[in-house]
């Protein structure tokens, strides 16, 4: 097995390498003056089982292009099998036509990755499970849930756990929220969120009685922070004792850090699927958990032809 990291999240790739006790393969990524990307693999990869780690996070287009170019380099270097390890799959939110004459960009990106020559994809908490079907190659979609469950058990004593209510910040996340709530035998509430326009969110109503409860908002992506900061304000207005959030991918664009800082949220817990800038690391309300053991174990299982779904049983 060989592990290769693009430039999108080298810290995570190093942590995965530590978990597996396999060194990262030496590569060079360079830029031409016009910003074209050039990649060179500095070690022999002929006949190797390659795991190429590159989330397609911001700058999404650069990181995606780098992933495609690295796959092409590996194909031409006669790698035997290439697994694109994409801890955060950007473009996932464009998974359907939202109006006339609009693209399904998630499908286009899936096509690009397969056409470039990847044989498999390994990712975490796809925005919608059915995006797996956009790939015509085997795709393993890992769940962040076990990492979050252990953390919640550590953070909440057996006594306070009884007051936990899991909250879906929109109707689209109800299945995901119900699934984690089941693990704690907890109730769920649902925020009736509307988007008057892209990038803006409004809370219309809360479905469920959150008064006196420790609310945990559960979601796959935090982008501008509007969804969860509005949801937290509405939950507090409805009498919630506390509001925290567990969210897999910290996209955290634009005003997100400021919104979280000024919000009713006690804490926002994210995974390290996306490399974070210093402003996020310095925010007291944001805590990052490692996904390296989860990804490392999945990589080990894929390399050994063992079941990946067993990880979640
Ligand atoms: C939407 O379906 C996603 O699950 C997130 O709720 C959304 O992307 C969050 O966006 P923002 O933080 O910009 O409100």
From TrEMBL:
It is an enzyme of class 2 (transferase). D-ribose 5-phosphate binds at residues 195, 219, 223-227. It comes from the Bacteria. Its cofactor is Mg(2+). InterPro entries: PRib_PP_synth_CS, Pribosyltran_N, PRTase-like, PRTase_dom, Rib-P_diPkinase, Rib-P_diPkinase_bac. One of its GO terms (biological process) is 5-phosphoribose 1-diphosphate biosynthetic process. Binds 2 Mg(2+) ions per subunit. Pathway: Metabolic intermediate biosynthesis; 5-phospho-alpha-D-ribose 1-diphosphate biosynthesis; 5-phospho-alpha-D-ribose 1-diphosphate from D-ribose 5-phosphate (route I): step 1/1. Its EC number is 2.7.6.1. Pfam families: Pribosyl_synth, Pribosyltran_N. Residues 1-117 form the Ribose-phosphate pyrophosphokinase N-terminal domain. CDD domains: PRTases_typeI. The keyword Nucleotide-binding applies. One of its GO terms (cellular component) is ribose phosphate diphosphokinase complex. The active site is at 193. It is found in: Cytoplasm. Keywords: ATP-binding, Cytoplasm, Kinase, Magnesium, Metal-binding, Nucleotide biosynthesis, Nucleotide-binding, Transferase. Homohexamer. Belongs to the ribose-phosphate pyrophosphokinase family. Class I subfamily. Involved in the biosynthesis of the central metabolite phospho-alpha-D-ribosyl-1-pyrophosphate (PRPP) via the transfer of pyrophosphoryl group from ATP to 1-hydroxyl of ribose-5-phosphate (Rib-5-P). This is Ribose-phosphate pyrophosphokinase. It comes from Algimonas arctica.
């Amino acid at each position: 097995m060989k592990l290769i990291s693009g430039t999108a999240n080298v810290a995570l790739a190093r942590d995965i390498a530590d978990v597996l006790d396999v060194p990262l393969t030496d590569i060079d990524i360079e830029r031409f003056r016009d910003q074209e990307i050039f990649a060179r693999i500095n070690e022999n990869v002929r006949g190797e089982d390659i795991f190429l780690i590159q989330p397609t996070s911001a700058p999404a287009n650069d990181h995606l292009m780098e992933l495609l170019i690295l796959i092409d380099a590996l194909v031409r270097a006669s790698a035997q099998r290439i697994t694109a390890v994409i801890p955060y799959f950007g473009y996932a939110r464009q998974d359907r036509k939202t109006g006339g004459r609009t693209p399904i960009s998630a499908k286009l990106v899936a096509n690009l990755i397969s056409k470039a020559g990847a044989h498999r994809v390994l990712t975490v908490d796809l925005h919608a499970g059915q995006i797996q079907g956009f790939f015509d190659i085997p795709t393993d979609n890992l769940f962040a849930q076990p990492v979050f469950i252990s953390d919640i058990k550590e953070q909440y004593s057996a006594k306070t756990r009884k007051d936990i209510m899991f909250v879906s910040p929109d109707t689209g996340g109800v299945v995901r929220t119900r699934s984690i709530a089941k693990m704690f035998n907890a109730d769920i509430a649902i925020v009736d969120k509307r988007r008057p326009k892209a990038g803006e969110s409004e809370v219309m109503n809360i479905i469920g009685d959150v008064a006196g409860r420790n609310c945990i908002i559960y979601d796959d992506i935090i982008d501008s922070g509007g969804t969860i900061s509005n949801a937290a304000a509405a939950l507090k207005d409805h009498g919630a004792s506390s509001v925290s959030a567990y969210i897999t991918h910290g996209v955290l664009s634009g005003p997100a850090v400021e919104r979280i800082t000024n919000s009713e949220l006690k804490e926002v817990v994210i995974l390290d699927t996306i490399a974070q800038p210093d402003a996020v690391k310095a925010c007291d309300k944001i805590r990052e958990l490692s996904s390296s053991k989860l990804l490392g174990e999945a990589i080990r299982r894929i390399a050994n032809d063992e079941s990946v779904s067993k990880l979640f049983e």
